Amino acid sequence: MRDTVAAAQKRTLRARLSEWGRVALVNLAILLVLTIVGELLLGTWIFGANLGTLNVHTNVRLRITDSPYYPPGTVAYYNRDRFGLRGDYGGDPAKVTLLAAGGSTTAEVSVGDGDTWSSVLERTLRGGGKAMTIANAGSDGHSTLGHIKSFEVWFPKVPGLKPRYILYFIGVNERGVAADANAGADTLAHSTAYRRVRSYVENNSAIVRGIRIVRGWFAARRIGVQHGSGKGETKDSKWVPARVPTEMAQRLRPQLEAYRERLKILHAKTLAFGATPIYVTQINGDGRLVGGVVHEIEGSGGGQAYVELSLYNDVLRRFCAETKARCIDLAAELRFGPGDFYDSYHTTPQGSRKIGMFLAEKLRAIIR
Length: 368
What we know:
42% of the residues lie in helices and 12% in strands.
């Protein structure tokens, strides 16, 4: 009798486990189907801008807190939308009239959305009666190589994007480009299959986008201080004469000639895109010319960087003069001081404000 009862109990338990297993499988299948449907409808796999495997950050929502560049208690936000752009342009790329392009000095990962130089530029122009809608396409590490590539694999994928002007804030990253280079982040694509697949998922997945949003809202963190090369000027900085190699222009000649050729290509692609290019020279914060002598912040090495960047700026100036392209010589005309840079090249909100207001004054005479 006991054996019969035990056998019946075992059969009942097996039946229950089997039933529970079937229910679990059905629920998992339903969840999987709903997830796939949700991904297809809410992600950009089918609808919207599919940026594929591009090394362009999309759908980023981050908080900047405890930053030494803001007053205590300030919370700022770093956002990049589904097209990889920053800026309050209403989410409709067709409304963009000026596109700001550059590297990390344009992307400004340490500066809140409303304090980037591109945002300050837009507000200042509007306040002066020039209604411009500006989007920021700055991307860390990009040089003219990346800007050229953007016309092939990025900008055409952004629906309706047809700005009247593209402003290039360039020079700093050109110093790291070899004469025959075409690799790295500037290709806008990763070199390994794993990174390409990962970027493809990150750029299109609604789930990943949701995780990023939640992480950005609830994980207070400091952003971008890791840039940190060289030294930003403070009121205690000591400026000293720099020792700079005299043969630098000769040594850099191949790179400078290659830069000029890239400018030609970039200029042509911008015009073919239906936009007017505007070029802006750059400067480093820890090197300067004082009475005809190159100086640097003591211990920064900024003197050599200043001379190298000046050579690239000279190429850009000559290119603009020869092609009658619009060029704003920020490096020669705008002066920075303590607190404007937090390292050699990246500006604090204070420095970004100076850039935005300076560019607004110059652009008033350029834009229609």
